[in-house]
Structures are given as structure tokens and as C-alpha cells.
Protein 1
Amino acid sequence: MWRPSGADRGRAAAGVRHLRVHRRPLRRGGARGVSWQDEIRALLPAGLAWHEPVDTLAYRRDTSIVAPGHPDLVVRPLDAPGIGRVLAAASRLNVPVYSRGAGSMYAGGVNPHAGGLVMDLGGLDRILDIDTVRGVVVLEPGVTFGALLAALEPFGQTIGIVPSTGAAATVGGAVSAHALGTGSPRFQSMGDQVAGLEVALADGSFIRTGSAAAHGAGFFHRYAIGPDLTGLFIGADGTLGVITKIALWLHPLPAHRETACLGFADYPSAAAFLGELQRKALLDNVWYGAGYDAMAVRGRLLGADPDLDPTALPRFMLGVDYGGDADAVARDRTRIEALAAHYGGQPQPRFDEIYFHNLRRDELYWYSYAGYFAKSRCAMVMASFATDTLPAFLDQAQQWRERHPQFTWASATVLCRRGLHGAVLAFYDERQQWPEVQAVIAGCTTELMALGCVPYKSGKLWAAEVRKLTEYQRAVTRIKAALDPAGVLAPGNLGLDAR
Ligand SMILES: Cc1cc2nc3c(=O)[nH]c(=O)nc-3n(C[C@H](O)[C@H](O)[C@H](O)COP(=O)(O)OP(=O)(O)OC[C@H]3O[C@@H](n4cnc5c(N)ncnc54)[C@H](O)[C@@H]3O)c2cc1C
């Protein structure tokens, strides 16, 4: 059972919210005096489980501000049957299981708050099939985006979304957290690129979703047979099963890519333009689109060009990454810029040159705020909201900037096919400001909900708010009870506790 340390208690006293602990003990000993750790260890080949604190240290947390957990055991299965054996035993022994890809998320989903075991899925890293006839790639969950894109390139193929954390993040982690979903107005979200899954359930059995549910049919259609079971596991943060295989749609690499930027004098004009852009379906050749408030990027711009007049910067900048046939890109760009002009939007070639084009070239996009990551840690909250909520979201971010000047604040908005995703980022000094930033970010999630924003990539960061969504939570709790009756899968994630 996770118990607060002295430092954690200090944070609680400072008003920092903690996850509820379980109502009943989750772990119990193994049979005949054998510890549960030894029982589970015996299910895997030698060398694939470890428990010494020095070895489990790296498995306590992800990149978020969510409090670390303490794993009692880490296992690194190398195949799906090994995962099934471990899950069946964990259910029988009441041992919590936290799946882990690269641990790069900023929502605490991998943090083992209830102790138990962390399942490191990095060992399942094979690309199983690049099927250019069916247009799908089938892979294991531990494959990184960097490895996947490199493998697809010789085939002239890609997966349609832009992996900002490509080198490290695993496909399994991104699907389970519904991360990288911000990647593409053209292809919408990570989840929309999933053709089907194989999932190990808590009892150690396996299901395949979509067309692959029919034996021998394979992955070629997601919406087949009955309800969309694939969607059940996307964004579930490991609470309903462990993803052991993923089928993603393939798309041809675009023949041509170029970037362009637009500036708007105020947030309402920008929001009105973006809404019109989405309604007019002008996004077919837009692979990525991101909005920045001037405060978030002006340091970077002035660093590159000290002669720039900061007061002349438009309040809202939009960077657009076009991809497709060169003629189609030219046509759409002309139409988009004409539409922008109607809302007072002006091309910003200097911003593109200094900032956005470089992010595109390095596939870094919107988190690369002037090297802050090298200097301090970043607390991130992501939310989804309707396009017309953009002004309220950005005004709110500005209020936090003024209210908490001890942190460096930034915000960014990502263009989707419909609606927007927004991120608020607070850069902080981990040695001195961690409890403080935790409390501030907890307040931010509450205020975002009050604005009509909804949690995106929930993990544990949003757990307190997700719990307040009573009907939603009741439905998910019922599904979880059916799939994970012992409540061992990722307790605490999505606000779901053990029953
Ligand atoms: C610097 C930075 C920049 C980023 N930029 C972007 C961006 O531009 N756009 C964007 O959308 N996202 C972005 N992200 C988020 C990024 O996409 C995620 O961090 C990443 O996809 C998570 O992959 P991971 O392998 O690290 O997953 P982990 O952090 O290991 O896991 C994420 C969640 O999935 C669960 N999980 C992992 N593997 C499995 C499995 N096989 N089965 C079931 N559950 C599993 C874990 O329990 C956890 O809840 C960024 C993150 C960082 C740190």
C-alpha cells in the first residue's frame, strides 16, 4: 500500500491533494510461505525481474509532478505469454500492476502509487509486420516511434501523426495514454490511427479487437463485429488491460512539406478563424498546427532577433505544417491565408523562420521552449476544449502567469480536426518548488474544468477532477469491475481505485 512519506505529509499539510489509498489491502503473501515476489519471478526467465531499491529507482515515476511510487518488484517480460502469466498471478495474489513504456508521460500513469509491480514493456520491441497491401503495420507495444518511423521510411510510409517524443516514447504508452494525439489535424488523433489491438486482460487471457477478433482475419478494419473494443483501451492508462500488440494505419510520406505562420491581434479573432478553418474542412493537407500566445514565445524571438519590437508582436501566432502534394498544399495555403485575412490574420514569415520552421525541421514542435527543459523541470497540464473556448483558456493562462510569478509559464494550443488541445506549462526548480508547483497545478485543473475544458491524458494528474464526473466514472468503474475484478490494474489512474 502506498503511504505518504514525511515529505509527502508535508505536502498534504500544504494543501496538496493526494490520491485516495485503497479501501482494502491489495497485496497478500504468496502460497506456502513463498513471497508473492518470488512466485511472480518464477514465471519469467531468469534475469527479467528485480526488486532491489537501487534497481527499481528508475521505475518510481514519469516526467510529471505526480508523487513517485515505490515498486516492490519490476518485471520485464519479453513476450505476450509472459505478460499473461504475470497478470494471472497478480490477480490471484492481489498485487497491483503498473504498465510502463518509456515513462515519458506527464500525468503520473506509470507511478506505482499502490506499490506492487511495475511491468516494463520495453522488452517487447519488435515490428511484426509492415503490410503495405493492407496498409497496416503491426508491432509490439515497446517499439519507440523513432524506430518505427525509421523502419517505415524505406517503404515510403508513415503513421500520420507527429511524434514529438519520437526517440523515447513507446507506441504502447502513447496508445494507452492517448498521447501524441495532438499530432495531426489531417489524421486527428493517435487513437484514430489504431486499426486494432491485442490486449492481455487481468486474468491472463487475451483479446484481439476489430477485424482481428475473428480468427485468422487479421487487422484490416477497426469497426467490425460489434462495439469498438479498441477504443476501450485507448486512453485507459493501463487500467483495463496490458496492450501486447498494436496495428496502426499506414499513410504515404507526403511528397512535399512546408511551414507557414499567421499572427492575430487578439484571441477572439484567432478563435473565430480556427473555428471557420475547421468547419470549412481546409485541413486535409495540414499535418500539424500549433498556436502560441506572444508571451510564451517572445523570449525566443528576441533572443534570435534583438531588433524585434516585442510590443508589435501579434498576441496569437499560429504555425502550420503543410504536407501533401505540392499543388494541393499551394492551393490550400492560399485559401487558408485568404480566410485568415478575413479575421485580420497576417503572415508572419519572421516567426516561421526563427521559431516554427526550426521546430518542424527537428520534429520538436511546441515543447521546446527556449531550452527550458535543460534548466528546470516542467509541470504540464493538457486539456481539450471547444475552439470557441480558446480566448478563455489563454486569458486563464495569463492569470496564472500573473498570480504565480515564481514560475515561468507558457501555453500552447494544438489544432485538431475539430476542437483544440491546450497545454499549460509551468517551469519550476525541482529542488525548491515541487510541493508548491503541485498545489498550483492541482488548482489549475479545477479552474480549467470550470472553464469547460476537459481532461486530456488524464493519468493521475487529473484523477481528482475525473472522479467528480459521476456518471462517467460510474460507467468506467463498471467496465473495470468486469475486466479487472480484483482491481489490480493501475489503481489510482483515471481516478479509479481498487474496489
Ligand atoms: C518533452 C515531451 C514532449 C511531448 N510532446 C508531446 C506532443 O507534442 N504531443 C503529444 O500528444 N504528446 C506529447 N508528449 C507526451 C508523449 O506523447 C508521451 O509522453 C508518450 O507518448 C508516452 O509514451 P511512453 O512510452 O513514455 O509511455 P509511459 O509514460 O511509459 O506510459 C503512459 C501510460 O500508458 C500506460 N502504458 C504504457 N504501456 C502500456 C501498455 N503496453 N499497455 C497498457 N498501458 C500501458 C502507462 O501505465 C501510463 O499510464 C510529450 C512528452 C514529453 C515528455
Protein 2
Amino acid sequence: MNKSLYTKLVLIMVALIVSLMAVVGAFLMNEIRSFYLDDFYQKMQTVFDYQTLADGLYSAANGADAPEEMAKVLKAYSGQLGIDSGSRNYYILSGDTGAVMTGSGSETGTLAKTTNIMTAIGGNAGYVSDHSSSYMDVALPIEGSAGRFIVYIKDNKSNVRGLSSKLFGIIGQALLIGLIISVLLSLLLAKAMVTPIQNLTKAAERVAAGDFSPNLTSNAQDEIGVLTRTFNGMALQLEKTLDDLKKSEAMRREFVANVSHELRTPITSIRGYAETLQDSRNMPKATEQEFLAVIVNESDRMTKIVQDLLMLSRFDAGSIEFAYERFSFEKSLHDVYNAMLLEAQKHSHNFTLELKTPIPDIVGDTARLEQVLINMVSNAIKYTRDGGSISMIAGRKDEVVWVSVRDNGIGIPKEDVSKVFDRFYRVDKARSRESGGTGLGLSIAKEIVTRHNGTIELTSRQGKGTVITMTLPVEGRKNEE
Ligand SMILES: Nc1ncnc2c1ncn2[C@@H]1O[C@H](COP(=O)(O)OP(=O)(O)OP(=O)(O)O)[C@@H](O)[C@H]1O
Ligand SMILES: [Mg+2]
């Protein structure tokens, strides 16, 4: 259990209960006091307003033994006046000195001269109430032929005090029970809050240690539930990012390995042929020429690989500038067709160009798009057995021009189709190398076409043939500066 959270909760609960009780207690006490005070003065007013009582008192004040007679009259009304001989008593005082003549209470000699008594001695009714004093009283002057008297009712508030202290006790008990309940509740609450936080902490520790599996479950709609779900999402995202990183790191390694391999092969054969030429003095001229041709050929191959790699790394760095201009795509199609026709004829392919619609001028980098077209056609020529048929078909659809190169060549196995755009990927390494391929052509093509906001897609059936289609927006790349 988290101590600090628990302590905080307990403190808050205790403060809450204590302040609540204090407010309620103070309010109740005050209410009771004013209730008693109001009740007392109201009762007195009502009772003394009775004509019969007043008549009785006045006639008693006229007769002999006036104080006792007046006391009798009051006694008859003790019910209405609430006289209980305990907290509330009546007295008959001398109207001149305020001295007690008779009464129901015990304070006969010691009765204090209150403000109200002084008022009555002065000849007026003393009805003033005072919240803060320890008693409530009324003093009424009665003048008869037997003398001046004061009818005096005094309540020493012992009832109110008794009730208040009882209430105090009840509030104290409630406070105690409230405190116990609040401590228990805060314990439960702290546990309910701390447990998911502890789970989260553990999960975070596991994630920090590289274990992304902790799938915390929480259906709670509260903040902790949201936090838990967010945490799950984060762990998942982190795992994915790490996976991606690992994958791209693996791809980078593979790429470097491929590059080294591709470069080493021609170097090895160049060196082999060069050494042979160096060592053999009397080599026939024809063989010498043949060896030199291989060396030149391999150097060309290396040059091509290095150029391709350079271009790809420039694409990756984003440092390549495309020369966007409006040019005749139809002319480019014809140029590429004418450039590749000789190569196609060398392999006895039936090579055709067909334009389905008029081809508009488009915006793009002419040289690089022609490079893509050349790779599309040269692949078809390379990967089709001699005497095959290869066709370039092009057209326009809305704001897009498309061109397909279709062959009836060796095709590509299903599982390889998605990989042919990967760098260095060749379905049949030996065959491709034989024909001078490095597996970079389509990945470069993809970069170029993508940068033109176009698409390049390939469909193939092994042994039947391949169709590769490029589309380009007529207006070129939108948002181009
Ligand atoms: N028309 C096609 N028919 C059959 N296989 C194809 C065809 N076009 C591409 N491929 C397969 O896809 C691979 C990748 O093609 P890509 O053009 O990228 O490389 P390449 O032609 O081998 O080398 P490069 O183009 O760099 O000289 C090829 O090696 C080949 O296996
Ligand atoms: Mg190619």
C-alpha cells in the first residue's frame, strides 16, 4: 500500500468529517438556543396577555397577604408558563427594592438584580432577551393597593444546557463513528486507486526492460482506466516502432552485404583476367581481345551498379533534383520503342507499340521517365525467351496517362511478385546476372514514378508472362514549387 497516498486520503477524510461535524454542531446548538429563547418570550407574552391572569394578579395585589395570593395566581398558570421548579421559577418581588418576597425557586435571598428587574422597578415591563446571558427572564410591575410588586419569571437555562451537552455527546459519538468509517473508506479507496497504479508501474518496468507483452486490462471509465488503456496503446506502438527499427536495420545490413557482393564479383573477374593477361606472354591476339572485352564489360557493369547506388542514395537523402518540364510523352514512347527495337530484334522478339488514345504532353522529368520505360522494356526482353512477343501499349484516361509493357516471358512466381521492387531483389540471381541485371532497376523506377505522383504495378503468371503498368498524372506532381 502506498503510504503517502493513504495518509493523504485519511487526512482529507478526517478533516472533512471534523469540519462537517463542527459546522453541524455549531448550527444545531445555535438553533436550539434561539428556539428556547424565542419560545420562552413568546410563551410569557401569550400567558401574560390573558386578561384573567392579569385581573387575578391585580386583585391579589389589592388584598391582604398580597405576595402569597399573587403566587397562587401564578401557580395556577404554571402549566402554561412552563414553571417546573427546576430550571424555570416564578418569584414575587418587592416593586421598590426588587427583594424576593416569595417564589417557587430557591434563589430567594440571592436573586440577582437583572436588567429586566431594574426596568420593572422603574415601572415598566422587562422583556428584554439576551442571547449571551446564562438565564432568561421577564419582570412585570404590578401595582395594587397593598403596594408595588414585581412578578418575575426566571429560567436558568439548565434545560437548554442539558440538551446542548446531550447533543454535544451525540455529535461526539457521530464524529467518532464517522472517523472510523472514513479511515476504513480511505483504506478501501486508497487500495482501489493504488492497485491499478501499482500494476501500471510494474507494467512500465517490464516495458522498460524490453517486454512489451503486458496487456493490462481495464474497462474502468475513470482516469486510471483511460491511463491504463493509453499505456497499452503506447506499449503496442513502442513495440511496433522497435520492430520497424529492427527491420530497417536488418534491411540496411542486407543492403550493405548486397552492395559488397555485387561489387566484389566484377572486381574478382577483372582481376582474374588482368592477371592472366599479365602472366601469359604469347597469348593469341584473339584471346587477348576477348579477355580485354570481358574486363571492359565488367567495368561497365561496376559503373552501372555504382551509378544506380549513387542515384538511390540521392533519392534516400532527398538531394536529387528533378527537371520538371512539359514534354511530349508520345515522343518519349516512340523514342524508347525505337531505342529498344534493335535489342528486341536481336532476341527475335516481336516488339510492338500501340497507342490506344492520343497521348498528351505531360509534366515530368523526361530523361528519368524514359529511364523507367527503358527498364520496363529491357526487363521484358531479358526475361522472355527468344522469339517472344512484347508490346508497349499506352493511353490516356482522364488526367492520367498509362503505359503497359506486356510480355509472354518466364513470368514471376506469385510469392516473388511483391518483392521485385525491393533493392537487389532478383527472382533468379544467376539468370539475371547473366543478362547483366543487378536488381536495382525496378526500385529506382519506383522511386522516380512515386516522386511524379504516379504508380507502377506489376502482375505476372509464372511461365505465362508479365504485365508492368505505369501511370502518370498529366499535370505532373501537384504542389510542385
Ligand atoms: N518482365 C519480367 N518478367 C519476368 N521477371 C521480371 C520481369 N521484370 C522484372 N522481373 C524480375 O524482377 C527482378 C527485378 O527487376 P529489376 O529491373 O529491378 O532488376 P534487373 O532487371 O534484374 O536489374 P537491372 O534492372 O538493375 O539491370 C528481375 O531480376 C526479375 O527477376
Ligand atoms: Mg531491370
